[in-house]
Design goal:
The complex is a heterodimer of chains A (454) and B (305). By secondary structure, chain A is an alpha/beta fold. Chain A has a six-stranded mixed β-sheet, with helices on both faces. The termini of chain A are far apart. Chain B has 305 residues and is mainly alpha-helical. Chain B has twelve helices and two strands, in the order αββααααααααααα. Chain B has a two-stranded antiparallel sheet. In chain B, a hairpin with a 2-residue loop joins strand 1 and strand 2. Chain B is globular. Chain B starts with 9 loop residues before the first helix and ends with a helix. The chains are: A alpha/beta (454), B mainly alpha (305). Chains A and B meet through helix 1, helix 4, helix 5, helix 12 and helix 19 of A and strand 1, helix 4 and helix 5 of B.
């Protein structure tokens, strides 16, 4: 009997462990997940790769599966080459830590171990473009940027204008609003009319008060509209002498965040928290979100949930100020042993009209090809089911022209994240303003000892 | 006259313990020496640029002990946090474990189903600490089941933000550590109690001692060596507390860094910038603190009347 009970308990325990492992591991443990090439290149075709004199293994570093999906669907891998995805979640600084180690060891690595392409976000792209770890892609044969959006090329260039990567998407960010709530608060859900009522911060704040009066939240996090301000900053986070500075734009956001929190217009939660994303379910009470195409088609999964979601109850407009958010760049590491394939991948995702069209049509992306985007912007039959039939490209084509990639530093990601994290506690009333700022400075100096904080 | 010497087997003994010493030298002593060495250098990365190593003497230590504008010395604050978080978990852990151990070993109570209980109380220890924290994070989040229950039962109209308040965050961390470790301590203490001569308990009973007297006059004094061992190992583990608060607070130790432990502080310097100088200096401080506290605990608990 005893043995039976012990056995049962042991089994229960093992199952419990498995269950926990499955759910918690991707978020908690930043363990590198090595996906051993599902492409299964036929071993017999090895000769093809050998002929071109290039490596047989194409290693791609990424932090999530988004681009992997597009790559596997739309890119034809040359015969004899195995694609190896090394996916390390972004949590903490796990992705960059793993990538940095690999890039710094690039010169001594075996050919099959070399990084052949890696993905980076706009918040830290400068760290890689302004270093020896990346190389000029013009020299590799990626020369035609005529259809790419200028800012995507600027972002991937180093200080001397040498282009080191391309983006497969363009990320003008829009105000994404719930149609049903807009109808209740503003009396209309028509994008043009909503835009007219929300085209400045004064109007935005006035509407926030109306929304609150009707029992809604204007935004689901005080940091929801952070990018609208930070993208329009007129100076970088750290000046040329290494001094940390708060631009007017950031200070305005800080004031607004506190104000919105005190007045109950928003929820104090991280924009990626469960609490914030739960607002995207059908029973959510939040009117406005901000984000580009990737935000509503990749990150707003709750809204697309077949049972609890609210497909079609959304629409987009420019909002109080034009801005962009994020974007994924494909960068060319120095020392890759597959330069031809690398250039081919890059060319495919910016210049192959067929592939770019599929990205727009099947994946709801706003691709990095102006001609293709324009084609869909003018197509009266093109519309997004998620947006209740609205044509997102028509909005984004206009917004894309306003994007500026200016005032960026290698410190941006850390500054943005830590400011939001520490300022939230002040908004919640858990710490004083001075404490919040002191903690922010500490966090900056722990990562960057050379930055001078006030 | 030549004295006949017996065959010495000692060399075999040395041979057999050699692997341990080699492993200790390679994997413990050498890293420790290197850590101390590194703590005297400026050695970090800014972006992808390596800065240093440059010898800077005790600059890193001075930086650690320089008060900020509000007069707080960060490392002392985090050492305080660590101690509070450890004590908050360790006191209930040792008290409950001691009680359970006494109950389980009592020949008078003869508790049935001991194996079952022992397995169950040990179980939380088998789950990875980070998974356990993720579980608690989800349970106590603002949209999690605990808050749903609180609201459903009408205890509060708005969700209680467990992760925004110092008291609740610390309580959660302490209770998780307690839950994870009390089973382990119980089993250790049971082994200790079972090692005590049963005759002594019987003799005490015949002399008319009640169970409280037996506990304090017989069990505890004879259990001291095991108890000291338990407290010291728990303390060393407690000073290195990392995974539970790290995952529960997403690495920030908030609110206001009041649940930031020493190792989390160290990790702030390592993650992203590989600052071996500062991280080394913090390690050395932790080493010294651990040494001093272990000595104090050892002295107090083994003090002869």
């Amino acid at each position: 009997m005893k043995k039976l009970i012990a056995m049962l308990l042991a089994l229960v325990m093992v199952f419990a462990l498995c269950a926990c492992g499955q759910q918690a591991a991707p978020a908690a443990a930043p363990a590198a997940e090595e996906a051993p090439a599902a492409e299964a290149a036929a071993p017999a075709a090895d000769d093809a790769a050998a002929e071109s004199g290039e490596g047989k293994v194409f290693n791609i570093y990424a932090w999530n599966e988004e681009f992997k999906g597009f790559f596997e669907k739309y890119y034809t891998v040359p015969e004899g080459v195995t694609v190896n995805w090394i996916i390390v979640p972004n949590q903490g600084s796990a992705y960059q830590d793993a990538l940095d180690e690999a890039l710094l060891a690039q010169a001594d690595a075996d050919d099959d171990e070399k990084v052949d392409m890696f993905l980076a976000e706009d918040d830290y792209i400068l760290k890689y473009t302004n270093s020896e770890a990346t190389q000029d892609i013009r020299a590799l044969g990626v020369t035609d940027f005529s259809n790419a959006y200028t800012y995507t090329v600027q972002a991937a260039s180093d200080a001397n204008g040498v282009v080191k990567g391309v983006s497969f998407q363009c990320c003008p960010s829009a105000l994404i609003y719930r149609r049903s709530i807009a109808k209740d608060v503003l009396g209309t859900d028509d994008p043009a009319e909503v835009q007219a009522k929300l085209d400045s911060w004064e109007k935005f704040e006035a509407v926030a008060a109306d929304a609150k009066a009707k029992g809604y939240y204007m935004t689901s996090s005080e940091a929801e509209d952070y990018r609208v301000f930070s993208n329009n900053a007129d100076a970088p986070w750290v000046d040329e002498n290494g001094n940390l500075q708060f631009t007017d734009a950031i200070q305005t956001w800080m004031k607004q965040a506190k104000d919105f929190s005190d007045k109950g217009y928003t929820i104090n939660a991280d924009i990626w928290s469960d609490e914030c994303t739960a607002q995207q379910f059908g029973d959510g009470k939040t009117m406005c979100f901000f984000g580009p195409a990737w935000y509503f088609n990749f990150c707003m999964g709750n809204a697309q949930d077949p049972e609890k979601g609210c497909m079609g109850d959304w629409a987009i407009c420019e909002g109080p100020a034009a801005h962009y958010w994020g974007g994924t760049w494909l960068l060319a590491p120095a020392g890759t042993d597959n330069p031809t394939m690398l250039a081919d991948v890059m060319n495919t995702f910016i210049n192959d009209e067929d592939v770019c069209s599929k990205l727009v049509e099947n994946e709801a992306q706003f691709c990095n090809n102006q001609a293709v985007n324009a084609k869909y912007a003018e197509d009266p039959n093109f519309g997004s089911e998620f947006l209740g039939g609205q044509n997102p490209n028509a909005v984004f084509v206009e917004l894309a022209t306003k994007i500026k990639f200016e005032n960026h530093t290698i410190f941006d990601q850390h500054c943005n994240e830590k400011l939001q994290e520490n300022w939230r506690q002040f908004c919640q009333g858990e710490v004083t303003e001075d404490e919040a700022l002191a903690n922010f400075y500490k966090a900056i100096n722990e990562r960057f000892p050379d930055v001078v904080t006030p | 006259m030549k004295k006949h010497r017996g065959i010495s087997y000692a060399k075999w003994g040395y041979l057999f313990i050699l692997p341990f010493f080699i492993a200790y030298l390679l994997f413990s002593f050498l890293p420790q020496a290197l850590t101390i060495y590194n703590s005297f250098f400026d050695n970090y990365r800014q972006g992808l640029t390596q800065i240093g190593p440059t010898f800077v003497g005790v600059k890193n230590y001075i930086k650690l002990f320089t008060p900020d504008k509000t007069g707080t010395i960060d490392i002392l604050k985090y050492a305080g946090n660590t101690l509070i978080l450890w004590v908050g978990g360790a006191i209930p852990q040792i008290v409950i474990a001691l009680l359970l151990a006494v109950f389980f070993t009592s020949y008078r109570l003869k508790i049935k189903g001991q194996q079952f209980f022992k397995t169950v109380i040990y179980m939380p220890n088998l789950i990875m600490a980070s998974a356990f924290s993720m579980l608690f994070f989800t349970l106590f989040s603002n949209v999690g089941p605990v808050n749903q229950l609180i609201q459903a039962w009408g205890w509060s109209d708005v969700p209680i933000d467990f992760f925004a308040k110092k008291v609740t965050v610390r309580t959660l961390i302490c209770s998780m550590n307690f839950l994870m470790w009390f089973g382990n301590t119980t089993i250790l203490l049971m082994a200790g109690i079972m090692g005590i001569d049963q005759n002594l308990f019987e003799a005490a009973e015949i002399d008319g001692a009640n169970s409280v007297q037996v506990l304090f006059r017989v069990t505890l004094p004879l259990l001291t060596p095991i108890l000291v061992y338990t407290v010291i190992t728990a303390m060393i583990g407690g000073l290195q507390m990392f995974d539970v608060p790290q995952v529960l607070t997403n690495g920030a130790g908030n609110p206001n860094r009041t649940s930031m432990t020493l190792i989390m502080y160290l990790n702030n310097y390592l993650g992203g910038s590989k600052n071996y100088g500062m991280a080394g200096a913090i390690s050395v401080i932790i080493f010294i603190i651990t040494g001093i506290l272990s000595l104090i605990v050892f002295r107090t608990l083994t003090k002869k009347d």
